[in-house]
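Hello, quick one for you while I still have it in my head. No rush at all, and the record is pasted right below.
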Amino acid sequence: MKLNAAIWIRTATMSVVLALATFAAVAAPGAAAAAQQVEGHYGSASERAEGSNPSIGGKMIGYVAYTKVNRRAPDVLILGTSRAMQLDPREIKKRSGKSAYNASVSDGAARELLAFGSFAELVTPERAPHLVIMFDIEGLDGRTPTRRVESTIAATEAARKSCPSAERCTTVWKNAAAAIVRDSAVGLRGRPAWSLMQRPDGLIRSPSLARMEREGVDLIGVRDRRIAIRIKSYRPGGAFDALEAAPKAKIKRLLQLANARGDSPSLVITSMHPECIRRCGPAGWFEHRRNARLFLRGLAKTYDFQIHDYSDPKAWGGTAASFYDEIHLRPKAAAQVVAKLDSEGAFDIDPTADPDPETAASASTSTSEPTPVGFFERGLAQVREVVAAAAARSERA
């Protein structure tokens, strides 16, 4: 359907505004140092070098490549932190028959969940994915978001304010997404190639656990040291001693946007190692969890979403052996979480949505299915085409 002149003018204007706003926010000189400042790469230098801690920018580029190659959004979009990185989209496909993309990022919180969830809708306004939100109760803290996250949220909100209807504003929204993707590439200077860090479905190719086991690292010792640090964070004055207003508002906004397009997200409260619960609970974690549960139950009176409380690993059959440190799952344990979520209907999608052309038969697809040859090359070429087209429209404007 052709856009009328007013819509075309609005589209061109938005391209210019969004390009200038997002580029000014993130395009700092200094390559690697500037990129780290923009992206907020957490973890040690060795973890950053090997790609153990992915940036939200790399995940956004990967997501657009996924939608271009597959010509559609995934059925399911996993939003989360490092605790959710091992949830394998192939396992989800095997269990539920639904395609999925894992958009989890290291040290994510409510701010990252909103940034990526809002961005994903701009990429495919015609059919956004069902959200599975892997929610850490610690994500409602007062940490300052990185400039990448701030600029992404600002750009997505600006696009919606300029043209609020997904049906009538496809061009405006896709131009906004293209601007965000272009500027994400700026933040990846000095980083490993993102295509080497993550599979086409977003799962991280993180060698950190294998390296630690190969080198004989005392994982129990690592866990105990990390628990000792975490205990302090739940005490008065610690990072997780209260639920902050700003991240609470971001969770509300994420649910509001999902409901507006007809999605009822599945929100999963993530787990910790039983020993971490035993020691952190009395220090303030039990109270923090209670307050987070009350907050979510309050939201459920206004917004349509399902809560899956996995804060205790017993809820999904987890044990101490399910974790390799105080909070992170081993791959087999992540598969258990996927199986439990599937049994509870967490991956179910609105039956009125367009069916997946690969459905049903894919439920028996092997989890070791190889990556298509040239996947990233084709995806990136198509992303470049979208970005070039948006830039050309901006110049004409």
Notes: The beta strands are 76-79, 100-102, 130-135, 266-269, 306-309.
